Records
---
Amino acid sequence: MDTCVYCGKSIKQVDCKVKVSKKKYIVCSDVCCENTLKYVERDKKYKKVMYLGIFIPAVLILFNLLLEQGMKLVYLMQVVVGIIFILFPYPNVSFQTFSSVSVRGVIRICRILGIIFTILGLYLFITV
């Protein structure tokens, strides 16, 4: 039985497919088709922003640790990375991955990780 690439629902009869790059993927409805296309468009548009939003804090953390300036900046950069994951849930996964975890599931996982990073970073920034 096939599953929708966007929402993960089981599909009995394949009526809709969405073309991404050169492959076609099964979706359960026109809404999921539209949402998948929006996700792909946003992924292309914001992936570099997401990578920069992770790379710059990582470099700042490295310099901070090399200069032995304490941990406050590290925790603050952890908050920044968490916010980046919440705002830009576009991990480096292929569409073959979406056969086991739907696009919506991947977005949810990214945002949950972002929330955890943000809360933990704020907690550590305030208490340490």
---
Amino acid sequence: MALKWLEERWRTLIPELERWSTQEEEIRVICEAEVAAWRGRSGLRKANSLRIALTQTRQRVRQLPLTAENRWFNPRTGEWEHIALKDLNFSQEEWLHMNLPSQEDVQRKVAHPLRLRDPEAIVACGERLLRARSWPEVVLGVVINTGAKRGRNREDRAISRKDEIFRVV
């Protein structure tokens, strides 16, 4: 269920997106103005606070019918999407900043570190996976050996294979 204030915003936003669905520049202006209005709301000045509004609005826009005029092919997802989803988004830097742990989380983790029962076994498993012939096992080995969290690998890192040398960027 969407936030009440957000549903009220949609009463204006959605008809505007439908009205201008063939005008890419107008859609961009509408989306930028909408996010600017959210940022102007009391309590929503931090990018992290805007995450819910953006996610719910993008889900609502996905419910709009796609036509040849209002769609674009998203190369990242490999799917057709409403053209508004191109501009109704945060930059990669903003998403990265939002996903950083808070200072409180960092302090809590420093004060109460997670103790691993057998770290040597974990390292050995990661090394074994790096030598595997199966690409998914090699990727898992890279993830284990870099300390990456599950789910972050797709967005924050690109793992590529080139001449049997693996790069994590």
